[in-house]
Design goal:
Helices cover about 15% and strands about 50% of the residues.
Length: about 220
């Protein structure tokens, strides 16, 4: 084979490889799954934005629920077993979703009709409960200390609570995240009373368009 023929053959082979690569379809994106809590042996899942209540062993939209407890749910999709942590959306084909940049959060009501979800403040995990009657985000001193807020030197304000007036420290949160939606510069108060979760008040909720349909709440970032 002459040098010219070898060069021509190599060029044809490279062209064929490039054409073959271009013809290959992009990998299909798997479903985005979020575990939002449990009701007995059923998991509250959001599958591609659609809230579903799934019993152990059942298959919904190609997702089989293998097990569920208070901390997470194990599911199977296309033979792949995945552990979902509460409040953290996961796209199976591409791993966890980006830590910010999302536009919508879908919440399912838990026991007592409360909308609760896992999230983070300044990158530290917290448990939220939606409270449309709260003016600002509110948390107890224990949570504030755990996530590293310098609340002791923050200014004080008189806050009206269900138990009467109380003095709280006013702080600003650098970031607050629900699922893959993140907002910044959020006003909050640190309460002296112990609190089992962080109240998600209107200093955050006002940044979303809120829509509730029965046991499902959608928060779309403005």
């Amino acid at each position: 084979m002459t040098a010219a023929l070898r060069r021509r053959t190599a060029a044809l082979l490279l062209g064929a490889v490039a054409a073959s690569a271009a013809a290959q379809p992009a990998p299909a994106a798997g479903p985005t799954l979020t575990f939002n809590g449990r009701m007995g042996d059923r998991a509250l899942l959001v599958i591609d934005g659609q809230p579903r209540t799934v019993a152990v062993g059942a298959v919904v939209q190609g997702v089989r629920l293998l097990a569920v407890d208070d901390d997470g749910a194990r599911v199977e999709v296309d033979g792949r077993s995945v552990l979902l942590r509460q409040g953290t959306p996961t796209r199976l084909a591409g791993g966890p979703t980006a830590p910010s940049g999302g536009r919508e959060v879908v919440l399912s009501a838990g026991p007592g009709g409360h909308f609760m979800t896992q999230g983070s403040i300044n990158g530290r995990p917290v448990q939220f409960m939606v409270d449309t009657g709260a003016t600002v985000v509110a948390m107890g001193e224990a949570d504030a200390s755990r996530i590293g807020l310098a609340w002791r030197d923050a200014p004080r304000a008189l806050i009206n609570t269900a138990n009467g007036p109380s003095t709280a420290h006013v702080v600003e949160l650098r970031s607050l995240r629900l699922g893959d939606v993140e907002v910044y510069g959020v006003q909050a108060v640190v309460m002296p009373a112990a609190m089992p979760y962080v109240l998600l008040g209107n200093s955050v909720l006002s940044r979303f368009r809120m829509q509730r349909e029965g046991d499902v709440m959608r928060l779309e970032k403005r």
